[in-house]
Amino acid sequence: MRAADLRLVESVGAKPYVNFRSNTRGDSECETWNRIFHYFSFHREEYMRHYHKRSNCKTAFSMIKVKFGERLRSKTHTSQVNEVLCKVLCHNICCLIQSIYELGVEPNFWTE
What we know:
Elements: H1 3-11, H2 31-42, H3 44-68, H4 77-103
């Protein structure tokens, strides 16, 4: 990740979590990079918990793209947002159905 990208992430109030290689050193010219690396070095367990959330998110996005396609068909911004939300909803339903079969959970639907 470039230094400009790290500064951009921090400028909007987010904290960047980068997967460091084993030979990475904290002697960069970028102050943000050094600060993140030292936080990684001294608080590794906490850092990795945050990084794992990021990797889960990337995995979910990848699953959605593979199953429902990368491109949006809608033209307007509002309809594109709705299309993305529908893809996420469909992904969640697929994960629920898969979990029902894999874990042997008996679905209980409410009746009046």
